[in-house]
Amino acid sequence: MTSQDSRFVARVLVYPRAEVLDPQGRAIEDALGRIGFDGVRRIRAGKSFEVALDVADERQATEAVDRMCRQLLANPIVEDYTVEWVSE
Amino acid sequence: MKCGIVVFPGSNCDHDVYHVLSHVLEQETAFLWHQETSLEGCELVVLPGGFSYGDYLRAGSMAAHSPIMAAVRRHAEAGGRVLGICNGFQMLLETGLLPGAMRRNRDLRFLSVDVHLRVERDDLVYCSDYRRGDVLRMPIAHAEGNYVDTEEALDELERRGQVVFRYVDAAGRLEPAANLNGSERAIAGICNGGGNVLGLMPHPERCAEEMLGNRDGLGLLAGAVAAGGGRVGSLAAAGG
Question: What pTM was computed for the model?
Fold first, then answer.
């Protein structure tokens, strides 16, 4: 990588869509209740990915991450994703 | 009929399907490595069960992007036969060759048990040995078989008659208790609009010989290699 390249790091968060039953989240919710944590309204169990990119600019980085989310990292039928940019 | 079984790292039902196609049904059968880009002239392509790529990310998601899948997609889109069993069904969903997605089983358990299936279509080549309403007994073995799609997509699937198998009780009745993984509308198997691509969670290759105590699955694999187009696509064409 040359010094002209910009580095972008995305944190991609993938969660089951709100209307999709999340059996893992439900099980964790139940377990929290059993060990005495009252007042837990909801648990959604998801995944996170850190994606470090060597691309020229922010537009390319945003486009690339959005495409990889739609094509592989998330299944849009059952999952939603959000992207946060973090400094490395 | 020349049959090809795609082998992915982590496939574990590939040899079972091979045995039934090659030894029981006496078809010319080959294994196709997932990194190949050609189907070598195979007319039936089977995506077998197992844990391709260790179920990384989502079951079937990595396999859906392996090199051979471009050829499988072309084959399917040209009307060629593609049968996805269990993990193979999950791959067909991940490639978009069939609609919908899989969630973890409702009770989070890996389920390895015999279930009953009701045949909902008998005009597909795959079901040519069955009659609509037949109740079959087949084993399932999966953790992610809880079929889901949007309500509108499920309605469309029903309207187009793409539901091929449903989980029922031994008498063929839809009962919540018989739908062990919690699939929407008790869906166990579906086909594409043309009827040439079929995916199902149960394992017909594990119940295709009398000596195994059950041969209810043999008909499905025999249908898959049956000559001619059968009535494939007729129902979809009629808008059924």
Answer: 0.90
